[in-house]
């Protein structure tokens, strides 16, 4: 069950061809220090780095770059080090005007997930070894990422406390300092400000990108950076976003999942012939229209919905979901996600994945109302875990005996007072430069694509900010970039977003 708590996640980065490698160590040796006794206890160094130099090819162009891998402290209000955050920072090394060079600050989610997923599978200069649909291949390892955004922006991948190689340094520091919606935002904003100062990037246009719970994080950070660090952004990219604290209500919670059910059923060829014959994006508008204009009002009536109308709605839900009308009726028109993942392919002997419904699993028995395991997550861990450990140690020359936490101990996590969607709206209202782009996979059942559209509709009731908001959909799941075709398209969408959100010369930030 604990695995399920971690599934809102994902983000990472990697690098490739090497012209030369130069090791630079700050303060202490890169090898973990050990005490001079028989116990050989590991000593965590919260402030150290190693630099390597590389060259890669992006969109047919040679791109030289420097990778800085290391830790940088988190300080408390008295200047005491309470943690060290592990990061990897990529800078294109042939850039003359760093002030005009965009900086992208990247987070994954969880909460409790390392910044590994987008690092070595999406925006960074290297890719893990997988097939074109995202499934594991051996031998494990990495290759060049010809679609990385490093040609147009520098990138830093940040690992919050207890993820990756990030650790607390003071046992007396309450865990509540780090592990909660608002605590997470507060200390990370301070760390980002320190990082930008150290790397002399205050003049650069700045962007945040977060995936899954990372979208909650960066939405909160957009306002916290403005209010507490006086740092203003040009853009926020939300990859597979959460609900961002935006209240749905019982009827909306039940209704909004149907378009995702329809996309998944289409992929597995479980829809009626007239729907199945259409392209996915040509079929979905019909389902979305039914969801908002018929299903949502019907579910709002609950048990007082007229029997004839109930039958009509159940028939349409069955048509769009690939389930039987009987199953829909037995669930009172509100089919749970877990039941859907178990039921859709039950007769074929398979379950389907939560984060990516293209993946199939096999349970111990076909009976039951939920899958035994998450087929997609175990597949991803299969390929990502060896790759990130190989890459950091062998390619980026970061040597340590600490364990790389793909998922770290961060619970209990305080989810109270989540106002991150409203925080992002406020940040946009206060900063005319700030733009937002959402990227979502149609087959993502954890942070489904239609709920991400609903976020944008509800975030700004006035509609005055919608011209600075955009939405992009991809025919894959939570980590849409694992599919090669979407990797190329999604990175190109980020390039275009950066281009469009950079102000023209002389364009002031005003309404």
UniProtKB/TrEMBL annotation:
Signal sequence segment: 1-19
Where do the record's region annotations for Disordered lie? 22-46
What does the record list as GO biological process?
proteolysis
Taxonomic superkingdom: Bacteria
Q: Which GO MF terms does the UniProt record name?
A: serine-type carboxypeptidase activity
Q: Which Pfam families match?
A: Peptidase_S10
Q: Where is the composition biased (Basic and acidic residues)?
A: 27-36
Q: Which UniProt keywords apply?
A: Carboxypeptidase, Glycoprotein, Hydrolase, Protease, Signal
Q: InterPro entries, alphabetically?
A: AB_hydrolase_fold, Peptidase_S10
Q: What is this protein called?
A: Carboxypeptidase
Which species is the source of this protein? Answer: Flavobacterium hiemivividum
Organism classification, top ranks?
A: Bacteria, Pseudomonadati, Bacteroidota, Flavobacteriia, Flavobacteriales
């Amino acid at each position: 069950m604990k695995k399920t708590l971690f599934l809102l996640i994902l983000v990472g980065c990697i690098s490739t061809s090497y012209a030369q490698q130069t090791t630079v160590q700050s303060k202490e040796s890169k090898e973990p220090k050990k005490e001079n006794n028989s116990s050989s206890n590991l000593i965590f160094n919260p402030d150290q780095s190693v630099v390597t130099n590389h060259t890669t090819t992006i969109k047919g162009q040679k791109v030289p770059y420097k990778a800085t891998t290391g830790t940088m402290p988190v300080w408390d209000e008295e200047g005491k080090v309470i943690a060290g955050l592990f990061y990897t920072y990529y800078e294109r090394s042939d850039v003359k005007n760093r002030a005009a060079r965009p900086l992208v600050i990247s987070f994954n989610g969880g909460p409790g997930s390392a910044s590994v997923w987008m690092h070595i599978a999406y925006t960074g200069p290297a890719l893990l070894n997988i097939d074109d649909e995202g499934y594991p291949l051996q031998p494990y390892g990495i290759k060049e990422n010809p679609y990385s955004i490093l040609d147009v922006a520098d990138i830093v991948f940040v690992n919050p406390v207890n993820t990756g190689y990030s650790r607390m340094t003071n046992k007396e520091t309450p865990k509540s300092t780090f592990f909660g919606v608002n605590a997470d935002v507060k200390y990370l904003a301070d760390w980002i400000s320190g990082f930008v100062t150290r790397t002399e990037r205050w003049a650069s246009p700045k962007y945040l990108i977060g995936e899954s719970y990372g979208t909650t994080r960066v939405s909160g950070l957009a306002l916290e950076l403005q209010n507490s660090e006086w740092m203003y952004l040009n853009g926020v990219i939300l990859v597979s976003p959460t609900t961002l604290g935006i209240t749905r209500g019982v009827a909306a919670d039940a209704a909004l999942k149907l378009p995702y059910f329809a996309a998944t059923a289409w992929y597995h060829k479980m829809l009626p012939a007239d729907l199945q014959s259409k392209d996915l994006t040509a079929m979905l508008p019909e389902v979305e229209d039914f969801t908002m204009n018929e299903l949502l009002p019907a579910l709002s009536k609950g048990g007082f919905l007229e029997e004839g109308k109930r039958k009509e709605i159940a028939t349409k839900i069955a048509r769009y979901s690939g389930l039987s009308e009987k199953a829909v009726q037995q669930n009172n028109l509100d089919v749970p996600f877990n039941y859907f993942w178990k039921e859709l392919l039950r007769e074929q002997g398979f379950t389907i994945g939560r984060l990516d419904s293209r993946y199939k699993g096999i349970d111990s028995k076909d009976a039951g109302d939920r899958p035994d395991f998450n087929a997609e997550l175990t597949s991803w861990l299969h390929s990502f875990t060896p790759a990130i450990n190989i890459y950091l140690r062998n390619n980026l020359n970061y040597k340590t005996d600490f364990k790389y936490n793909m998922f770290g101990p961060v619970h209990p996590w305080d989810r109270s007072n989540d106002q991150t969607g409203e925080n992002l709206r406020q940040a946009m209202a206060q900063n005319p430069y700030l733009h937002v782009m959402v990227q979502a996979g149609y087959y993502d059942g954890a942070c489904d694509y239609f709920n991400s559209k609903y976020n944008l509709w509800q975030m700004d009731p006035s509609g005055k900010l919608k011209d600075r908001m955009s939405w992009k959909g991809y025919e894959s799941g939570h980590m849409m970039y694992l599919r090669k075709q979407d990797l190329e398209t999604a990175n190109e969408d980020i390039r275009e977003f950066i281009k469009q959100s950079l102000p023209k010369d002389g364009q002031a930030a005003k309404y």
